[in-house]
Amino acid sequence: MCTVVVRRSGGRPVQVLALRDELTSRPFDDPGRWWPEFPDVVGGRDATAGGTWCATRVGTGATALVLNRPQRPVATPGAPSRGVLPLLGVTHGADWTAHVDPTGMASFLLVLATPDRLVTWDFDGTHLREQEHGPGTLMVTSGGPEDRKAERFLDRLTAAGSRDEWRRLVQAAPPTDDPGALVVRHERDGKVFATVFGQLIEAEPGRLLLEHSRRPWTGEPWTTLAVGAPG
């Protein structure tokens, strides 16, 4: 995951915009209930490592997302994959740290958005720093302040009154080599690293509305996955 926007306000479902940038050659599965050990969890599945970049637990309305960070790009052999973190986050909440040892893991930022809390954990390869965020709109990116995405887009994302307006911002420009763009496409040494997935989430306890696309910058319809009773 490379760009995450979370809107949380009292009495309303949590809303999330998530854009995943990855090697275009790395296969993945669209969101579903892929993990028998987590039967109440919905998320896309990385076909290589088996984990996920974003997971929602339907019963609680909790969503967790993991972003790569640049400080330590490669994990120690045998260390857990970052793809397990969203699954642990939605299952155990803020106590996920008791269920995995990050020692040796590649650096990451984990976001946990629930109806009651919005928390991030930033791991630089050595230290894990927890930060609580209040109600409102939060934007985080894998590049951090250096990529200037939040500087360019946060005000517009905050002002947008609906998920459809968020989608229109994503569709405002095609993929570009600019690291500060919402949707990107970088080609280096014959490999393409690009925005490969976009999703919009609205979650509350017992209900999940998830819209997703593998080409989120186009005007093509997004696939809708609805779980639970209407709110």
Automatic annotation (TrEMBL):
<dbReference type="Pfam" id="PF05742">
    <property type="entry name" value="TANGO2"/>
</dbReference>
<dbReference type="InterPro" id="IPR008551">
    <property type="entry name" value="TANGO2"/>
</dbReference>
<protein>
    <recommendedName>
        <fullName>NRDE family protein</fullName>
    </recommendedName>
</protein>
